[in-house]
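Give me structure tokens for this 177-residue protein.
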Amino acid sequence: MKHLIYLLTAVIMVSCGSNTSDKAYEKTITDYLLKDSYTKDNLKFKIIEIEEVGQITVADSIDYLTDEFRKDKQFIIDRVTLAKETTEELLSKKATKHNHEKYIADIAIMNNRIDSLKNLKPDNLQGYESRNGADILAKIVRCKYAITIPGTTSVEETFDFFLSPDGNKCFGQKRAE
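Here you go.
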């Protein structure tokens, strides 16, 4: 009997704890969406469903930044390679003695740029050196809500909100897929 009471107490504490985070999420999202007093006073806003659907960790952020860096770098390499190929084509077709030397010099410069770009490492990861990869940077909370403008029908929308780890600040939102 004693164990049953402990089990029920634990279940109640866990369920109350998760409800508390939902309330904090609701307040943060409501404050984010209804920023000014005109909106708060003139719209009927009701949260229908709210659920934490994911987290963004330091490791996720590093992966994202590294991938974006790699894409940007490859785009520049492709552009310089195209310019080099165009210069090589001009060299083979229309090269006078003066132009020949200029085209050769330009090709050498472009080869150096391509090589240095290929060896370039991401420099946008400052601040992550001392962080644990599992540290949570943001929580993703999916929220379905209804907005009613007086005199019109209610509109339901579902968005993913990016909240601080404590759930008290909203960084942005994205329509849920």
